[in-house]
Structures are given as C-alpha cells and as structure tokens.
C-alpha cells in the first residue's frame, strides 16, 4: 500500500488571491504535521501555458514561495520547491501525453473556459496542462491532493491516466489512485463583482479579487463595493442557496474564522450589509496582514527564497527520480 502523501501546487501567474489562500494555502498549512508527507510546489511550468513576462514570472515564483512560507508552510516539515527545477515533471508529463487520450482532454471544462471562442489561438501546453498535472501528482506517488473545486476534474483525469498506465503496461498498483481533497466552506471563493465566476489571480479587474498583499484600506474598500442583493442576512444558511454573492461573503467569513457557514449566519441573522461587510473586512485584515507583512520581509531577500526553493528541489528529486526511473523501465526505456 502507498503511504499517505499529499501533493499540491500553485501557479506563479500573478499575485496570490484570497481564493488561493482559503482554497489552497490555508488548507496546506493545516495538513502539515498530521502524519502525512506534504509536498507543495510552485508550478511555473503550468504558468507559462499562457504568456508570462520573464521578469514577472521570476518575481511571481518568489512571491508564491513567500506566500507559502509566510502562511506557515515549514520547509523542514514539507517539501517546498519550484516545478521547473525538477526536470522529472516535464519528463513524466511527456510519457503521460502518450497515455492520455485526446477525447479525455476534450472534456476538460477549464480549457474550454480559458480558451473561450479562441481555442485555436491557445498554446498546445494549455491543452495538455492536465496531463502535466497528473505527472506532478503521480511522480511522488501522492495519494491526497488538496485543491479548490475548479481542480476536481483534473484530479479525476489523473486517476484515469494512472489506471490506464497501470493497465496498459501490466503494472498493477504502480501508480496510486489519488483522491481530490475538497473540504471546508471556501472551496470555491467567488469573484466579488460577479458571483458566477471564481476569484482568480488572472481576472480582469483588481476590484473583483482580494490579493493576499492588499493593505487594510484596500481590503475594506473591495468588500464595501462587493456586489450583494439588498436583503439582510437570513436566519438560516439554506436561505442563501439562491443568493450566490451573499453566500460567498458568508463562506469567506466562515473560512477565515475557522467556523461553519451556518454558525456565521446564526451570529449575524437579520444583520444588514452595512454591518456585515465591515466586520468581514476587519476579520480579513486581521488574518491577512501578518501574512502580507511576512511576505514583504521575505521578498526583500530573494536569495534566501531561492536557497529554500533550491534545497526543496534537492529533496523533491530524491523522491521523484527513482519513481521516474522505474516508470521508464516499465515503458521499456
Ligand atoms: P488561480 O486560478 O488563481 O490562477 P491556481 O490555478 O494557481 O490559481 O490554483 C492554485 C490552487 O488554488 C488550486 O488548488 C485552486 O483550486 C485553488 N484556487 C484558485 N482559485 C480559487 C478560488 N477562487 N476558490 C478556491 N480555491 C481556489
Ligand atoms: Na486555477
């Protein structure tokens, strides 16, 4: 049996958002020290599936690393590294390009959303992204993948790739079937201006997202301007099912305060947004400002971040390279 091992990653494709924090980083920190191996990656090979200015990419890679560290990822307890420094990711990604079927890739909703009507203009890398993501996970024989809801389909594809590889090469049980771990009240934090879209670092307007590095005044302004319907908070969480913007703010509050969304609604039943939004802003500032101050401090010493990532890459290679060698051997190489 495979020992429990956690793998997840974040793209350095812009500043980190509250969605990345609540849906990913905060949960990665909570998973640390629970008796599982924890491996966290800055997935720069994924970032370049859409154009990244080289200087911005270098900076964003360090900023994602700083976000992990400032939030409590301990590089002694977890393996923390940058994907492109471990070439086995790209190598296994190629092998999986030869396992995954075109029909499977055609079903990936994230590609369709990102490509929109311009599929022909997208990079081949953006299309093959889920196959590289399968390599990221399976290269470590990871069994658990904490992600936001948007990544569920990609983890399911990872299972399909693992199963087909094991079957085609008669390598029963070689790759484990990883489980997506999608838990807590903030697995899909929505855009503050359009409650039908998820909050994302690559969204168009800065007002639609909270950045982890926003200052207190900016956070207060963005929540104040967040779109909501005019009705006050209801008596029960169920009554928010048709009110996505309102539900989103309640979910964010619940996740930030480590409580359930039901408990938040009970506490604020009947309150108006003029009361709830400032309370939410204060809570977000109290949680994010110590992290962004620490990110600032870390970003002043890029050589130290690079050193931590370099050591992490050494540890990642120690796990990944033997698994890649066995994979090549199974394939006949
Ligand atoms: P982004 O979509 O902001 O570019 P990534 O693709 O790098 O972020 O995703 C990194 C992790 O953060 C993934 O596990 C993803 O599911 C999670 N995540 C991203 N946005 C959100 C969100 N709005 N709500 C919850 N989780 C999110
Ligand atoms: Na994403």
From TrEMBL:
Compartments (UniProt record): Cytoplasm
GO function term, MF aspect, one: tryptophan-tRNA ligase activity
Residue numbers binding ATP: 11-13, 19-20, 148-150, 189, 198-202
Motif ('KMSKS' region): 198-202
Database matches in SUPFAM superfamilies: Nucleotidylyl transferase
UniProt family annotation: Belongs to the class-I aminoacyl-tRNA synthetase family.
Function: Catalyzes the attachment of tryptophan to tRNA(Trp).
Protein name: Tryptophan--tRNA ligase
Native source species: Actibacterium lipolyticum
